[in-house]
C-alpha cells in the first residue's frame, strides 16, 4: 500500500497498545506509527523475547492495522543534549536514565537508538523516526556571545555520536528520519543543510517532515519538501495556529500551552496555518510514497475528536497526479 495513513501513538502512551489499535481502526486508519512509549513498543523486550514482536503484529492484525514506522523521539533526544537534567529524567525509561550521570545517560541513549534500529528490522519496518538532541541548541539566542568554534564543535559532536548509531542502521537495512524541530541539531533550513553535511549526506540519515514546527518559525513547509526532496523519509501531520499580534511573540513568552495570549499553539491537522493542499502537491511532485502519519497535540481540541477527523481530512488530499499533461493529445508529433 502506498501512502497509508497512520496514527502516531506518542500522545496516546497512557492507553494500552490494544486500546489505541481499537480506536485507530474504528476511525479508519491503515496502521500506526508506533512510539517506543508506554507499552506500545519496548525495544529491550523486542530484542530479548522470542514472541514479543509477533505479539505486536498479532494485535495489529486483529484490528486490521499495519506498521511501516516506529518512533523513538524521547531516547534520541538524550544522545546529544547538554545539559542532561530533570527534563530528560521525566521522559526517559529508568534503565536509560540510570544514576543520571550525564555522559552515562548519553551513552545508554545512543546504545538504545542502535537497538531501536535492530528492533525495527525485527518488526519488519524500514524507518525509525526520532530526535537527535543537540549540544548547541542552548545557544540559539547567541548571547552571551558564542564563537564559531563552539557551533562547529556542536555539529561534530552530533556526527561523532550518531555515525556509529547510523552504522547499525545500515547493517540492519533501516533508515533514521530525524524530525526537524526546535531543540534539535536541525531545526530549520540552514541547520538541516549543516546537519546533513556533518554526516556526509549518508543515506541512513534522512528527515521526518512535520510542518507544525516550520509554521511558527515563519519557514515554508512546502519549499522544505522541494529543497530536501531526496531526504523526506517520513511525514507527520500536525498543524500550528499563529496569533502574532505585536504583543504575542513566537518564543512563547514562557506562557503555558493554550494560554490565550501565546503567539502560537499546535492544533489538530487542518485547523491551523499549514497549507495542506500545496504540501500534498509538493509530496506528489517529489514522488513521496511512504506513510502519512497523524500526530495529535492540540491544547484546544480533545484528541478523540482531533485524531478521528484528521484521517478523513488527509484522505481527501491523497489525490494522484495525472499521467499526462491536459493537452498531451494535441502536442506535435514531428
Ligand atoms: O513528534 C513530536 C514528538 C513530541 O514528543 C513533541 O512533543 C512534539 O513536538 C513532536 O512534534
TrEMBL record:
* Entry annotated with the keyword Nucleotide-binding: no
| Keyword line | Lyase
GO MF annotations, alphabetized: myo-inosose-2 dehydratase activity
What stretches pass through the bilayer? none
What EC number(s) would the UniProt record show? 4.2.1.44
Q: Which SUPFAM superfamilies match?
A: Xylose isomerase-like
InterPro entries associated with the record: IolE/XylAMocC-like (IPR050312), Xyl_isomerase-like_sf (IPR036237), Xyl_isomerase-like_TIM-brl (IPR013022)
Return the broad EC class. lyase
> What's this protein's name?
Inosose dehydratase
Its ancestry begins with: Bacteria, Bacillati, Actinomycetota, Actinomycetes, Pseudonocardiales
Amino acid at each position: 500500500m502506498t501512502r497509508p495513513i497512520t496514527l502516531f501513538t506518542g500522545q496516546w502512551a497512557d492507553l494500552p497498545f490494544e486500546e489505541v489499535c481499537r480506536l485507530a481502526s474504528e476511525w479508519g486508519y491503515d496502521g500506526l506509527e508506533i512510539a517506543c512509549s508506554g507499552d506500545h513498543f519496548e525495544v529491550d523486550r523486542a530484542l530479548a523475547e522470542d514472541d514479543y514482536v509477533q505479539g505486536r503484529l498479532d494485535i495489529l492484525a486483529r484490528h486490521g492495522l499495519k506498521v511501516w514506522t516506529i518512533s523513538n523521539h524521547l531516547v534520541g533526544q538524550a544522545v546529544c543534549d547538554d545539559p542532561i537534567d530533570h527534563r530528560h529524567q521525566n521522559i526517559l525509561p529508568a534503565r536509560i536514565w540510570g544514576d543520571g550521570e550525564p555522559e552515562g545517560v548519553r551513552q545508554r541513549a545512543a546504545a538504545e537508538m542502535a537497538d531501536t534500529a535492530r528492533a525495527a528490522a525485527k518488526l519488519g519496518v524500514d524507518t525509525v523516526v526520532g530526535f537527535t538532541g543537540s549540544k548547541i541548541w542552548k545557544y540559539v539566542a547567541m548571547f552571551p556571545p558564542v564563537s564559531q568554534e563552539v557551533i562547529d564543535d556542536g555539529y561534530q559532536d552530533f556526527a561523532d555520536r550518531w555515525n556509529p548509531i547510523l552504522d547499525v542502521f545500515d547493517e540492519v537495512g533501516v533508515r533514521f528520519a530525524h524530525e526537524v524541530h526546535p531543540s534539535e541539531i536541525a531545526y530549520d533550513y540552514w541547520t538541516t543543510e549543516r546537519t546533513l553535511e556533518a554526516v556526509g549526506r549518508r543515506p541512513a540519515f534522512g528527515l521526518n517532515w512535520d510542518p507544525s514546527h516550520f509554521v511558527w518559525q515563519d519557514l515554508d513547509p512546502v519549499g522544505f519538501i522541494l529543497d530536501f526532496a531526496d531526504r523526506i523519509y517520513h511525514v507527520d501531520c500536525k498543524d500550528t495556529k499563529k496569533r502574532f499580534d505585536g504583543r504575542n511573540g513566537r518564543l512563547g513568552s514562557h506562557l503555558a500551552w493554550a494560554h490565550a495570549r501565546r503567539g502560537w499553539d499546535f492544533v489538530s491537522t487542518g485547523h491551523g496555518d499549514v497549507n495542506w493542499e500545496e504540501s500534498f502537491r509538493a509530496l506528489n511532485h517529489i514522488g513521496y510514497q511512504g506513510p502519512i502519519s497523524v500526530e495529535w497535540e492540540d491544547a484546544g481540541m480533545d484528541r478523540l475528536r482531533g485524531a478521528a477527523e484528521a484521517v478523513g481530512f488527509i484522505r481527501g488530499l491523497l489525490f494522484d497526479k495525472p499521467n499526462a499533461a491536459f493537452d498531451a493529445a494535441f502536442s506535435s508529433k514531428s
